[in-house]
Specification:
322 residues, alpha/beta, Rossmann fold, six-stranded parallel β-sheet, 44% helix
Length: 322
């Protein structure tokens, strides 16, 4: 990626002509090198790399895999070091939660960090249907290790307990890239469907009574959680699956549990509740993750850089504070 970026004259010319250069993910911070320091720059950090690697290391420890432990220990050490210059590369590092802001502040000055809630656009309002069956949904890119590992935990430790209470319940794992071992495990587990890639998630959300976010590793705000909330879906999530998704009081309108038995209990409870969407959840989510709030916060961030003012404002929704 670095070689391609530097070799492409069209990209270099576009960057040189820009008022503000924006890079997505800490791994792209190299695009904000010193030759572009006459311009404003923004680094959008979707998660904190060192935290992500540390949690993958913890997952390897739980699995008692010496091979993974060695590999992920090396990765954690390298990323912890390389993260520091990456987060210092831009005029402003834009993070998606206060939790990530605190972690990023360990690698760069707090005045460089701004917080902005992500925004979710929906393709349809199908999820407002009320005639839904007992379907639980886990949406993910299963080619990512944290999602595949979460699905295995869900199938091994949680779903048998749910099926014991709801023999007619169905679990749908929707998303591209499921590894072979996950597909085989799902085939051996009653009531489980693995879709692979789908053109639209709308019908899957529409047919679900509850959305599950059983992540046990990874970092950053989980957009899958926000998308389900904006659709008004009931959610059962782990602490990592719910990370960063809270209101100004520090609360959230869904169950957050890490123990497999409690996760199964909350899922079974949600499956007993008829209806596909809760308008109160939709209202809560769209008030925070709507387009207008995001646009206003993003415009303030960019205008700060273009105007050359010190990037010390902490941005959250419609408010700015020092």
């Amino acid at each position: 990626m670095r070689r391609a970026f530097r070799a492409d004259t069209a990209v270099r010319d576009a960057v040189d002509a820009a008022d503000v250069v924006e890079a997505q993910w800490a791994e792209m911070a190299f695009a904000l090198g010193s030759r572009h320091r006459t311009q404003g720059s923004v680094l959008v950090v979707h998660d904190i790399p060192a935290q992500r690697e540390w949690r993958w290391l913890q997952a390897a420890w739980r699995q008692r895999s010496p091979r993974k432990l060695i590999w992920r220990s090396w990765r954690t050490a390298v990323v912890s070091v390389t993260q520091i210059p990456a987060l210092r590369a831009a005029d402003i590092t834009l993070v998606l939660s206060e939790k990530d802001a605190a972690l990023a502040a360990r690698s760069t000055r707090a005045s460089r960090i701004s917080v902005i809630d992500p925004v979710i656009w929906l393709g349809s309002d199908e999820s407002a249907r009320e005639d839904v069956a007992k379907v639980a949904l886990f949406v993910a890119s299963f080619g990512r290790r944290e999602n595949a590992e979460a699905a295995v935990w869900l199938l091994d430790d949680v779903w048998p307990l749910v099926r014991a209470e709801h023999p007619d319940a169905e679990l749908v794992l929707a998303g591209h890239g499921p590894p072979r071992h996950l597909v085989d495990l799902a085939a051996r587990t009653p009531g489980v469907t693995v879709t692979g890639f789908v053109d639209s998630l709308d019908p899957y959300y529409a047919s679900a009574r509850v959305v599950l976010v059983p992540l046990r590793s990874g970092a950053g705000v989980k957009l899958k959680t926000i998308e389900a909330l904006v659709r008004g879906k009931r959610i059962v999530a782990t602490s990592i699956g719910a990370e960063g998704v809270i209101d100004v009081t520090g609360s959230h309108p869904f169950a957050v549990v890490d123990d497999a038995r409690r996760f199964a209990r909350e899922t079974a409870l949600a499956l007993r509740t008829p209806g596909g969407a809760d308008p109160l959840i939709t209202e809560w989510a769209r008030a925070r993750y709507g387009r207008e709030q995001y646009r206003a916060a993003l415009e303030r961030t960019l205008s700060t850089i273009i105007a050359g003012r010190p990037p010390g404002d902490r941005i959250r929704g419609d408010s700015v504070s020092r």
